[in-house]
From TrEMBL:
Part of the SNAPc complex composed of 5 subunits: SNAPC1, SNAPC2, SNAPC3, SNAPC4 and SNAPC5. SNAPC3 interacts with SNAPC1. Keywords: DNA-binding, Nucleus, Transcription, Transcription regulation. Its main location: nucleus. This is snRNA-activating protein complex subunit 3. One of its GO terms (cellular component) is snRNA-activating protein complex.
């Protein structure tokens, strides 16, 4: 048999085999069952629809608790306790899921489904998974056949050449994002095993508060990422609340200029622990010991203006029982009026290649904060903020501890009237991410 005829016969046989496997999944009853399963993921919105936010990245209200039922047939359920056993068990499940095929056909299928076949060879290769202001992978840029990549790199280099004040780089959304690897499996051997295909994993992106005015046409700037937190669906909502860090929680705001060694040990978070989350038009109130419902006045204010009645739940509810919308802007409020925007960016089933044990929550990304240095020596980080002082050129002025005591005190007494406050912003930067 000629080589071309043999090749054509082999291709025809492979196509028939693939078509038979597809027909198994394209039966009307199979499709109807899958549509019914997917419909169980969506739910009607709770509460009044007073704030309409739409966009390509915003989903409908999701009942994420139904994810295991919808994808119960996928080969992602493993119970192994070691990484090698997990990979072997996963491969066996995939073979069983595909059907009764021999090793040669399975290897062909793996090669056929390899994502590398989607590449053209002219892609712009980035040195990281997030956008950056640096022109990376210049080898791709100077490929004469990669016209689109060359165009992108030329524009980027042109912007950086004319950007004398670094305005372009400062406007980039991900300019100061630091990626953090997940915890190692061996760090906490006593933790329970993660149940792949059953446990639900959420990614929550916390953003920096920003000033906004209803009278102004534009905000001062877009909100910057502070951190991304990975949480399990089995964990209560207050676990997420406890992993949102704010400088106002530890800053006392008390003048200690008369006795700098008498900085209060009690933090605002200890004095005012009450807080709530407003997720998908529903209030979730922290009802732990010492907390009060600070949403009552808000709900009464809304009812008095015919805005409707907003549902109220406790933060003791599990995260998987919360109806969320991916990409929808929600808010966390504490200390009365300190607001932190956040969004749910991902909700998915645990995969066998995730950490084997339940080491959640953990921080996967942080926005790097700028360290404030002493205004006098410019060498040490700020420990004190001084206001209303006549012998310093700025108001307020930042001091390290050494300059603060040498410049403003003599024999333990103030050399002039001023107010001094302990500054812990750099301490927050050093501690992030805190597990």
């Amino acid at each position: 048999m000629p080589y071309d005829d043999k090749l054509e016969e082999t291709l025809k046989r492979d196509q028939e085999s693939i078509q038979n496997n597809l027909n198994k999944f394209l039966k009307p009853d199979f499709c109807e069952n899958e549509e019914a399963k997917i419909s169980n993921l969506y739910a009607k919105d709770e509460g009044p629809h007073w704030r309409k936010v739409t966009g390509s990245g915003i989903t409908k209200s999701l009942i994420t608790k139904n994810l295991p039922k919808v994808f119960q047939d996928l080969p992602i359920h493993t119970q192994s306790t070691s990484r090698g056993d997990v990979e072997l068990e996963l491969e066996q499940q995939i073979v069983s899921f595909v059907g009764n095929i021999d090793d040669e056909e399975y290897d062909k299928l793996v090669e056929f489904c390899d994502p590398k076949h989607l590449e053209t060879g002219h892609e712009l290769k980035m040195s990281m998974s997030l956008p950056t202001s640096k022109a990376s992978a210049l080898n791709s840029c100077y490929n004469p056949q990669a016209s689109s990549s060359l165009h992108i790199c030329k524009n980027l280099m042109f912007r950086k050449e004319i950007d004398k004040k670094n305005c372009y780089s400062r406007k980039l959304k991900y300019r100061t994002v630091c990626l953090i690897p997940p915890p190692e499996d061996d760090d906490e051997p006593d933790n329970e095993l993660l149940q792949s295909g059953k446990d639900i994993i959420y990614r929550v992106r916390i953003y920096r508060p920003f000033p906004y005015s209803h009278s102004a046409k534009y905000t001062v700037r877009h909100s910057l990422l502070v951190s991304e937190i990975v949480v399990l669906g089995q964990q209560p909502l207050w676990v997420l609340r406890d992993h949102i860090y704010c400088l106002n929680d530890i800053s006392t705001g008390i003048d200690v200029s008369e006795n700098p060694d008498a900085v209060p040990s009690t933090s605002p978070k200890d004095l005012f622990p009450s807080s709530f989350m407003f997720i998908n038009n529903v209030f979730y109130v922290d009802e732990r010991k010492g907390c009060a419902d600070i949403t009552l006045e808000l709900r009464e204010w809304a009812a008095a203006r015919n805005m409707g009645t907003f549902p109220v739940h406790s933060m003791d509810v599990k995260l998987e029982d919360v109806r969320i919308r991916l990409g929808y802007p929600d808010v966390y409020v504490h200390l009365g009026d300190c607001e932190h925007p956040f969004t749910f960016s991902e909700a998915r089933l645990a995969h066998p290649r995730d950490p084997l044990r339940r080491m959640f929550p953990f921080v996967s990304q942080v926005g790097l904060s700028q360290v404030n240095y002493c205004s006098i020596c410019s060498e040490h980080s700020t420990k004190w903020v001084v206001k209303d002082c006549d012998i310093v050129p700025f108001d307020p002025t930042y001091f390290c501890d050494t300059c603060f005591r040498l410049y403003l005190y003599k024999d333990g007494k103030k050399v002039c009237p001023f107010k001094a406050y302990a500054y812990k912003g750099n301490e927050m930067s050093v501690l992030k991410p805190r597990q």
